[in-house]
Amino acid sequence: MKLILLGPPGAGKGTQAKCLVDDFGYAQLSTGDMLRAAVAAGSEMGLKVKDIMDRGDLVPDEVVVGIISERIEQDDCVKGFILDGFPRNGTQAAALDAMLDEKGMKLDSVISLEVIEEDLFGRIEQRAKETVGGPRADDNVEALKKRLKVYHEQPAPLIKYYGDQGVLKTVDGMAEIDAVSAEIKQILADV
Ligand code: AMP
To answer: Is 127 labeled as catalytic in the residue annotation?
Structure first.
């Protein structure tokens, strides 16, 4: 199973990806998590992206495309993987298609979590309180506003791109976690 979860920050992509990891053994590939790990490790890449991430801007396409290209070849991706936070724009989507093609892989489904944006601030506030080790540097009102603005510059091309491919489904991301999860599983069962 090769799945993309689309949706703005706080839509529940990570939460839903974790449910699928637990139930099916797929790998969750969150570019945000991988970049944060690079920042925490103080790697060359981490140093390059830290300020960009703290502001809520997107890091360069080639950085995330490179990360994903290496990551999907690892053993834990054999059963399937869930892309969470990637692709974020048309360039990344096209690069993903090209890399899947080259590796003889095919995307099975793209699920867009539809949410009411005003409610995302409350969700992010809650996540900031619950994050072990302290809140993420970008889980605050200013950075979230920026991240939502950045998100809005990109989704239309992505929705169109995957809609044209006939792989896009939408789910009500404001429903309870279990209900969202059940709906996603039903979609995947029908793929
Ligand atoms: P996330 O955890 O998905 O909300 O991502 C946190 C931050 O990591 C974003 O605000 C971006 O700075 C960066 N990031 C994550 N994924 C991508 C991506 N696919 N393209 C560019 N930047 C990304």
So the answer is: yes
